[in-house]
Sequence to fold (415 residues):
Amino acid sequence: MQRLTRNALWNLLGQGVPLVVALATMPLLVRTLGAERFAVLALVWTTVGYFNLVDLGLGRALTQAVATALGNDRAADVPRLVRSGLTAMWGLGLVGTVLLAALTPWLTHSVLQVPEELRGETRLAFWIVACSIPLVTLNAGQRGVLEAHQRFDITNAIRIPVTLVQFVSPLLVPAHLGLIAAVLLAARLAGTAASWLACRRLVPAGAVEGGTVVALLRFGGWMTVSNLVTPLLVTLDRFLIGALVSLAAVTYYVTPYEVVTRMLIVTGALVGVCFPMFATLHQRDPAAVRRLFRQAVATLAVLALPVTLAVVVGARPVLGWWMGADFAAHSSPVLQWLAVGVFINSLAQVPFALIQGAGRPDLTAKLHLLEVPLYVPALWWLIHQCGIEGAAMAWTMRVAVDAGALFLLSRRFRS
Fold:
């Protein structure tokens, strides 16, 4: 329990500090860069996030494989796993570089409709960002190796300064998108080098093995299915609200959603630690898996339940104070439903991590695929009948069904 708490606090620090800095610097960035240049910079950040998908889930697959090897006294397999996984991730990152570089002229001139005076800066920024994609994928793999060894102190000590550069550097260098992107590239390079040194201290050099790469890709492929389907399940509601209700209603829905889902930062910090621990223990010590599972669920319940109750009770007065009485009248029922859904979803992340840590990401991916044809018509009907409150009801009911299924599926791995 002491290790779980310590590592979760490291994760919470690694996610919380950049979030606080981001909230503090956003107004300054808009004023310093101007609305249009800041909008392009935000799109650059978003693009880097989307291209995280090019690793095909190998980062998490590597965490699971290394943690399982360590848990089963197969430390001799770890160098081969690490070298094979990182080599494959570097190669996939290069594919992402070529793809984004080729798409840059089209994105700049046709898709994003960048103002003429910013097109040169934007093209340069995207080309520089394209060069950073192999670093992003490689760093994800290195972070997975360190997390499998329970070195969350190292991963977050590297993550925090690299992420802070993203928000602070635009305030310290001339307002040119290419220069800002170059600083971000340098920060990512430094972070990747630090992660590489830390990994080398833990894992000796190994050889690349094709069969190992295939096995990792098979595991990561199922995780990629979940990574592709989950954003659809999460964001479809706002598009249907815009189509069936109004664009103004989207604002009334998205604002409470963005606020209440910040509760998941604690969940992410704790579950991020549980995943490699489940992978390490699931074959070696089933009793420890059961204890860890109960501890994680109980901890999240104790932490999240008071916050959820406070949000449900105080939704209308707090939104009225923050956004005005009219906004609160529209959004407070949405906030109440979503708070319940986020609480349920917090608990569901524990069986989700157990199932994937036990080497069965196919089960979670198939569950998500099954949810799509059930959720979409229910969401459409409830929005049609109840407006944005119906969307919140549908989202909460979906995560409740998802949670129930995950707890049932996870029973076989904790019996």
